[in-house]
Backbone:
């Protein structure tokens, strides 16, 4: 165990395209062979996914995004982790919007027994794992999670946890400690299994989309938020990792990389994360469409609220306040003035276009504090609906924080095909345009060794897999390019 702390730990994960991607309802399935063929018919599913995601994720937002509520999708990425001894596999949703790891536990009657996503679900059994220990309510982890002693705490009483997500789904149970097994980069394109004990929730009662009725059920959720209770913070506190993680989603192949640790290649620029926020917030300074400036509402700049722009890879599209959306849409469509627009499914602006969209429409450029820029190309923000019918991915959102500040929410529409690095050591986020199916270089903090990590090698070698119900959007983009 001792030399484990000498090394950088990495979760190395390959995205894979789900065989069946059911987003809108249980009957609507997208077999993988459709990926390069006809356009996807159900646009609303994209937004429904986000409405639910938003509900779950942004508890400070009190206005729903709209959509017709048909979606039952609450998933984004999921990954396979090993827990306990002997090790058992668990599929958990990766969520940058919450702070703890929890899995369904034995004895839970409301927990899902099967998943429409195609994997076998597992209940964690503390009795069956030799290394499992209960976390008492007087444990330091427990008292710091609750900001102080729990009233009525007696010896032998376990530490309870309870989370209510924005869509009303809940999970509750008690904290346990056990081994978490993951892959560590050990050389160029090589990984070895490694473990560390972590404290996580043993789920006894779930409700809403987390309970047995849901079609996209998983074994639990791994929160990659900033709090001390997250697995990332626990591994960092144990000296195993730096609090740095990154993802690179290839919208062309549906593949990609998810890694924990310091990335040395590609080089990327950064901006500061707004401190003390529940989510990953950045300060937007400027927005340009084809070189022309869009006027932003003043409170998007407001450092005191600091909530202006949220980066969330669990959201599929990108959401803008009405005044921003209207200016942006006008400028995006300006080069093709006179083109007939259609409103599809009451919410998507669409049009017919036969030429190369990257030549016909402008790029959209966001500039953040410290000069970090993020560019969305027409092939990122337009997608094919039906033959020659393109739709705009930018969405108008009335969403505001509870105290009335406008929000910009940037999802995979703008984050794909970029390496996105979340550095919680230095409170920065950064990105670089990148081929997410190639390899990145990561650094072993203790030895200084630099190793290549390739998405391709991971898909076969990793004991961790990451999938995405967002493949739907990726499919759209794939079709557009091919
Ligand atoms: C944890 O890692 C150590 C060292 O590699 C190994 O001996 C042990 O069996 C592992 N434990 C589990 C539960 O995987
Ligand atoms: C989180 O952990 C750090 C380092 O262990 C500690 O300094 C900080 O006070 C903790 N924060 C909270 C809110 O407990
Ligand atoms: C970083 O920013 C500089 C200055 O704006 C720019 O020239 C460079 O291309 C950027 N690098 C990356 C990887 O985006
Ligand atoms: C954080 O910033 C320090 C000082 O600027 C730098 O030495 C260190 O490499 C940075 N950490 C990471 C993970 O980039
Ligand atoms: C990305 O990298 C992969 C692996 O090196 C390569 O096969 C593929 O052609 C690259 N894609 C692009 C768009 O350059």
Residues:
């Amino acid at each position: 165990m001792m030399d484990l702390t000498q090394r950088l730990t990495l979760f190395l994960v390959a995205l894979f395209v789900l065989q069946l991607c059911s987003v809108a309802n249980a009957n609507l399935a997208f077999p993988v062979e459709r990926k390069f063929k006809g356009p996807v018919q159900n646009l609303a599913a994209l937004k429904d996914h986000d409405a639910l995601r938003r509900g779950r994720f942004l508890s400070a937002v009190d206005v729903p995004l709209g959509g017709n509520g048909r979606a039952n999708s609450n998933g984004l990425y999921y990954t396979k982790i090993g827990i306990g001894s002997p090790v058992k596999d668990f599929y958990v949703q990766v969520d940058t919007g919450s702070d703890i790891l929890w899995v369904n536990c034995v004895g839970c009657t409301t927990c899902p027994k099967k998943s429409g996503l195609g994997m076998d679900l597992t209940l964690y059994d503390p009795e069956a794992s030799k290394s499992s220990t209960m976390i008492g309510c007087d444990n330091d982890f427990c008292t710091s999670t609750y900001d102080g002693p729990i009233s009525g705490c007696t010896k032998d009483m376990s530490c309870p946890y309870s989370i209510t997500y924005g869509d009303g789904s809940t999970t509750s149970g008690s904290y346990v400690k056990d081994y978490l097994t993951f892959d560590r980069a050990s050389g160029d394109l090589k990984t070895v299994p490694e473990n560390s004990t972590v404290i996580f929730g043993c789920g006894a009662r779930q409700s809403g989309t987390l309970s047995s009725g849901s079609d996209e059920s998983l074994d639990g959720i791994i929160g990659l938020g900033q709090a001390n209770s997250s697995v990332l913070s626990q591994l960092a506190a144990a000296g195993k990792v730096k609090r740095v993680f990154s993802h690179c989603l290839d919208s062309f192949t549906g593949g990609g990389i998810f890694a924990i640790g310091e990335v040395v290649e590609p080089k990327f620029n950064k901006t500061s994360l707004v401190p003390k926020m529940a989510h990953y917030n950045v300060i937007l300074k400027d927005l340009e469409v084809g070189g022309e400036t869009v006027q932003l509402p003043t409170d998007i700049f407001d450092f005191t609220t600091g909530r202006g722009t949220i980066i969330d890879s669990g959201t599929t599209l990108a959401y803008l306040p009405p005044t921003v959306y209207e200016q942006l849409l006008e400028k995006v469509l300006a080069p093709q003035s006179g083109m007939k627009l259609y409103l599809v499914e009451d919410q998507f602006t669409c049009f017919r276009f036969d030429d190369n969209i990257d030549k016909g429409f402008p790029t959209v450029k966001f500039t953040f504090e410290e000069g970090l820029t993020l560019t969305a190309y027409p092939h990122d923000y337009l997608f094919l609906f039906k033959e020659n019918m393109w739709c705009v991915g930018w969405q108008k959102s009335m969403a505001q924080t509870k105290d009335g500040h406008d929000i910009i929410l940037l999802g995979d529409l703008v984050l794909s095909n970029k390496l996105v690095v979340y550095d919680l050591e230095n409170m920065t986020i950064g990105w670089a345009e990148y081929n997410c199916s190639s390899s990145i270089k990561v650094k072993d903090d203790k030895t200084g060794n630099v190793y290549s990590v390739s998405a391709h090698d991971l898909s076969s070698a990793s004991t961790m897999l990451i999938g995405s119900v967002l493949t739907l959007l990726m499919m759209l983009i794939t079709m557009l390019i091919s």
Remarks:
- The mean pLDDT is 73.
- The first helix runs from residue 44 to 57.
